[in-house]
């Protein structure tokens, strides 16, 4: 009787794990060894190491790096100023709110803003630079991605800064450290966990989100995510798509180990 | 003076953060039909939106999928959290929790692609069923994460006391544990709901030709270019989001210990 009751707890959950966590990973690996004809092959892996795919991977990395860097540069001061504000809870809510708006709608807004006669070009005209082709360029891709990911960078950094004991900063200043030294030797090391969590939250989506490149960058930018979507849904070459997916998973694992969140609760 | 730069900087960040959203809403009232020159005020786009019966069906589909997947994933998730907390060995706990978090950290493309393979192999037709199963699948770990802290903070003496007083296993579950973790269950349900409503990438992979959710529809409309109907739709969705956030905020207040969540 007792053991029967216990089974009710874990059977549905373990079934879920088996079917939707373990099986999908195994299937991805299995398909990465399949050619278009369904035969076992290593051709997909050989293909991946040709210049076409390697350049694609490198450029995807480069864009993700740029996006993460700009996010960090903008988010750190913002998070810092928010922790110093009297209204920090309200400001935090205002940072989080846009992240709840459907990502596609925010990307779509930039179709208007960056269009030939859109707000951005009107601004450039007024400043005297003159209208430019903004949409479907790598600039617009990086800009829109930074815009979309900023809240995910601000939040963990804010949490880390908020936990920092201000007495440590005062102590450092009392002992004669300049504000720059205090920042470099006290604040930065103590908030590195937040920065790492932020990098993790931005870098992986930057590698993998395919809808932003499709909507904003046209075919100028191809990320790993775009390539996977392309192979699965357009060219129907699941084997190659699965191979790229395997590498994306590997990259993800490396990033997670490098930014080391071995704590519980990824959220 | 010392306060000026921080304030100016924050103001700048907030303006950039909100400008695109208001830009969208502003042009939803434009009679001109473009997102660049405002010709005159009109509500035509909203009228068009409400008379579009195809879109109405899509909204209904999206809501049904969200409610069903949130309800089912909440049940599985609560059972999962119980399984993790009451696992017999620490090692099992660790393994279950690690497997649980795989789908939370996986990029959507990977989840979508691997589910597409899975459904094709099992032989599930792409459409309502596959989308529902996929949404249940990616919502379960979120529910577990929301329920787990509540279960962990519950003192085991409560259960010991109930057992001493002669409660059966079933009574302990329904009369002691479940009431205690109710705030966590609500928070989990709510998160699952919003994840399902907002999901695009996974649905895009596993949906067939006949079945569409709102996100997928927005994507295919947006790929065709600018149509102010999308602007009107996004204005309504933004208002709806604010209502959801306020709702979530109140659940959080009742459930103080959990951290504020951000959308994926």
From TrEMBL, chain A:
One GO BP: transmembrane transport
Keywords recorded for this protein, A-Z: Cell membrane, Membrane, Transmembrane, Transmembrane helix, Transport
Chief place where the protein resides: membrane
One CC-aspect GO term: plasma membrane
Keyword Transmembrane helix attached: yes
Keyword Transmembrane: yes
Transmembrane segments: 7-33, 53-78, 90-114, 134-158, 197-218, 238-258
Family: Belongs to the binding-protein-dependent transport system permease family. CysTW subfamily.
Official protein name in the record: Spermidine/putrescine ABC transporter permease
Automatic annotation (TrEMBL), chain B:
ABC transmembrane type-1 domain mapped to chain residues: 59-248
A GO CC term assigned to this protein in UniProt: plasma membrane
Membrane topology (UniProt): Multi-pass membrane protein
Pfam families: BPD_transp_1 (PF00528)
Gene3D superfamilies: MetI-like
InterPro entries: Bact_Polyamine_Transport, MetI-like, MetI-like_sf
Transmembrane segments: 9-29, 55-87, 99-126, 132-151, 172-194, 200-220, 232-251
SUPFAM superfamilies: MetI-like
Protein name: Spermidine/putrescine ABC transporter permease PotC
Protein species of origin: Domibacillus enclensis
């Amino acid at each position: 009787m007792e053991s029967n009751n216990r089974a009710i707890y874990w059977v549905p959950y373990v079934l879920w794990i088996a079917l939707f966590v373990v099986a999908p990973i195994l299937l991805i690996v299995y398909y990465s060894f399949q050619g278009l004809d369904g035969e076992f092959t290593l051709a997909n892996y050989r293909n991946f190491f040709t210049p076409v795919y390697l350049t694609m991977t490198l450029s995807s990395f480069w864009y993700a790096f740029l996006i993460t860097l700009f996010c960090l540069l903008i988010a750190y001061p913002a998070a810092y100023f928010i922790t110093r504000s009297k209204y920090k809870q309200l400001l935090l809510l205002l940072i989080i709110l846009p992240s709840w708006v459907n990502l596609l709608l925010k990307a779509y807004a930039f179709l208007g803003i960056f269009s030939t006669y859109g707000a951005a070009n009107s601004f450039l005209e007024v400043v005297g630079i003159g209208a430019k082709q903004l949409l479907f360029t790598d600039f617009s891709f990086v800009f829109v991605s930074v815009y979309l990911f900023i809240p995910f960078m601000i939040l963990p950094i804010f949490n880390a800064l908020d936990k920092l004991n201000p007495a440590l900063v005062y102590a450092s200043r009392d002992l004669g450290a300049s504000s720059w030294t205090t920042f470099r030797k006290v604040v930065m090391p103590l908030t590195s966990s937040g920065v790492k969590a932020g990098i993790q939250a931005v870098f992986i989506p930057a590698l993998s989100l395919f809808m932003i490149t499709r909507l904003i960058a046209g075919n100028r930018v191809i990320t790993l995510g775009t390539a996977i979507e392309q192979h699965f849904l357009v060219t129907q070459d699941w084997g190659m798509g699965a191979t790229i997916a395997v590498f994306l998973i590997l990259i993800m694992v490396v990033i997670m180990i490098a930014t080391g969140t071995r704590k519980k609760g990824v959220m | 003076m010392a306060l000026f730069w921080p304030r100016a900087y924050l103001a700048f960040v907030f303006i950039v953060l909100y400008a695109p959203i208001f830009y969208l809403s502003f042009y939803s009232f434009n009679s001109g039909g473009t997102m660049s020159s405002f010709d005159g005020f009109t509500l035509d786009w909203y009228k068009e939106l409400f008379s579009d019966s195809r879109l109405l069906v899509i909204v209904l589909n999206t809501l049904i999928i969200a409610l069903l997947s949130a309800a089912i994933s909440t049940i599985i998730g609560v059972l999962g959290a119980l399984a993790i907390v009451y696992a017999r060995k620490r090692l099992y706990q660790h393994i279950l929790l690690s497997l649980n978090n795989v789908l939370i950290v996986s990029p959507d493309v990977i989840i979508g692609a691997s589910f597409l393979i899975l459904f094709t192999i099992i032989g599930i037709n792409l459409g309502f069923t596959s989308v529902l199963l996929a949404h249940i699948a990616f919502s379960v770990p979120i529910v577990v994460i929301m329920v787990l802290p509540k279960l962990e903070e519950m003192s085991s003496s409560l259960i010991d006391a109930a057992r001493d007083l002669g409660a059966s296993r079933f009574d302990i579950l329904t009369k002691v544990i479940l009431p205690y973790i109710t705030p966590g269950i609500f928070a989990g349900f709510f998160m699952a709901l919003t994840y399902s409503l907002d999901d695009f990438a996974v649905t895009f992979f596993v949906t067939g030709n006949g079945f569409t959710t709102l996100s997928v529809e927005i994507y295919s409309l947006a790929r065709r270019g600018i149509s102010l109907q999308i602007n009107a739709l996004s204005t309504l969705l933004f208002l709806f989001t604010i209502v959801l956030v306020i709702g979530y905020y109140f659940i959080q207040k009742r459930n103080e210990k959990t951290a504020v969540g951000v959308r994926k």
